[in-house]
C-alpha cells in the first residue's frame, strides 16, 4: 500500500469540521487526518473530542504544519495569507477555502509556490462553471459576469446596504443592489467574497470580472449565475445552493467541492478541467 497523505486542518468551524469527518470516513485508504488547529483552543479540543482522538490537537500552527503533507485552510479571509505563506515556506501543499483572502495576495502566493515547488489548491466552492471558465481562459475571454441572488434578509448588516440606508423590508421584487467590478464588490459585500474571488482568479482577474448583487423576495436560497463570453463561445451556469445537511452555517456544495478537490489530489485519474 502506498504512503497515506497526512492532512492537517486549520480552522475547526463549519467547513473544517465537515471535512475532518469526511477524511476519516471516506478517504482512510489514501489519507490520514493527523492534526487539527484553531485559534480558539476549545474548538480544536471540541472537534478532536467529537472525532474521539485527542492526539489530533495541535497547540499552534507550526506544530500542525510540521506533521502534515497537506494543510487544509478553513479559517477566515483575514487569516489565510499568513497561514498559506507559512505552509508554502515550509514546503507543504495547501488547500485554501478562504479564497476571498487569497485574491489580494494572489501573485505573491503564486510566486512563492512556484519557488518552493509547492501546490496550492483553491476549490470551486459554492459555484459551478469554473471548469468552462478555465478552459475559456486558454482562448480570449471577452466578459465574465457573476450574478448573486439572495433573499433580502441575507443582506442584513452588510456595510454597503447600511451605508446607503437600503430598506430591505421594502423590497417586493428582484432588485439589483450593486453592479461593478469584483474588487469593489468584495469591499462592499464582504460575505460574498469567496465566490467572486475564485471566479476572478480562474478567469480574467478582479478588475475585469463584473459582479451583480441582487436581492430577491422570490427565492429562499443563495443562487449564483455565471455568464462567460469568449472566443470559444458562451457559457451560462446557475447554481442553487442548499445548506449543509449537518451544518446549517455553510453551503453543502462548498464542502463537497473541497471533498472533490481532495479526490483529485488522491486519485491518479483526474476527470474534468
Ligand atoms: N470557497 C467558498 O465557496 C466558500 C464557501 C463558504 C465558506 N468559505 C470560507 O471558508 C472559510 C471557513 O468557513 P466556515 O464556514 O468553516 O467558517 P467558521 O467561522 O465556521 O470557522 C472558521 C474557524 O476558523 C477559526 N480561525 C479563525 N482564524 C484562525 C486562524 N488564524 N488560525 C486558526 N483558526 C482560525 C475560527 O476560530 C473558527 O473556528 C471562511 O473564510 C469562509 O469565508 C468559502
Low-pLDDT runs of 5+ residues are none
Main sheet characteristics? 5 strands, parallel
What's the count of strands?
Answer: 10
Structural class: alpha/beta
* Overall pLDDT: 95
**Helicity, as a percent range:** 25-40%
Classify the beta-strand content into a percent band: 15-25%
Bound molecules: nicotinamide-adenine-dinucleotide
CATH secondary-structure class of the largest domain: Alpha Beta
**Total of helices:** 11
- The coarse overall form would be globular
| Strands in their spatial order, largest beta sheet | 2-1-3-4-5
Q: What is the first-to-last residue Cα distance?
A: 28 Å
CATH architecture identity of the largest domain: 3-Layer(aba) Sandwich
Gyration radius over CA: 19 Å
In total, the number of domains comes to: 2
Characterize the structure shown:
With 273 residues, this protein is α/β, with parallel strands linked by helices. It folds into two domains: 5-118, NAD(P)-binding Rossmann-like Domain (Rossmann fold), CATH 3.40.50; 130-241, Dihydrodipicolinate Reductase, domain 2. The chain contains eleven helices and ten strands. The strands form two sheets. Strands 2-1-3-4-5 form a five-stranded parallel sheet, sandwiched between helices. The longest helix is centred in the C-terminal third of the chain and has 15 residues, at 252-266. It is globular, with a radius of gyration of 19 Å. The two termini are 28 Å apart. The model has no long low-confidence stretch (mean pLDDT 95). Nicotinamide-adenine-dinucleotide is lined by residues 10-16, 37-40, 43, 74-77, 79, 97-99, 125-126, 194-195, 198, 249-250, 254.
